[in-house]
Specification:
two-stranded antiparallel sheet, extended, 117 residues, alpha+beta
Length: 117
C-alpha cells in the first residue's frame, strides 16, 4: 500500500480590489463579513435596494455577491440578483420562497414597461 500523502493546498485567491468605503455607502448600507479569514466589505443588496445601478461586471470585479441592473426577473420582481449560484435568480425570488417580505417591486407584466423606462 503506498504511503498516504496530503493533497496540495489550493492557492489563495488574490484579494479583490475594493472601492473606498464612502463609495460603497453610496450604493447601499455596508455589510462586513469574514470569509476564509479575510474581512469582506460590500453593499448589502440582500436587505436594501441600491441607490444606483450596479452592473454584474462591477460586482464581479469588486468581489460582491449581488448586482442590480434594474431588470425584471421571470417572476416579475425588480430586485438585486446573485452574481453566481442560485440559478442567477433575484433576491426577492428567494425571499418569496421563504415567506419573507420582498425588498423590491413586484411588477405585473403589463406594468413592466413603465417601471423600467
Amino acid at each position: 500500500m503506498p504511503p498516504l500523502t496530503r493533497r496540495p493546498r489550493r492557492p489563495r485567491r488574490p484579494r479583490q480590489l475594493q472601492l473606498p468605503l464612502s463609495d460603497l455607502e453610496q450604493v447601499a448600507p455596508v455589510r462586513v463579513r469574514r470569509i476564509n479569514g479575510d474581512l469582506r466589505v460590500y453593499p448589502d443588496l440582500a436587505h436594501f435596494m441600491p441607490s444606483r445601478i450596479v452592473t454584474r461586471a462591477e460586482a464581479v470585479s469588486n468581489g460582491w455577491p449581488l448586482y442590480y441592473e434594474a431588470r425584471v426577473c421571470g417572476a416579475g420582481h425588480l430586485a438585486p440578483r446573485y452574481v453566481a449560484g442560485h440559478g442567477m435568480r433575484c433576491v426577492d425570488c428567494g425571499r418569496a420562497k421563504e415567506g419573507r417580505p420582498l425588498i423590491g417591486l413586484h411588477i405585473v407584466a403589463a406594468d413592466a414597461a413603465e417601471h423600467i423606462a
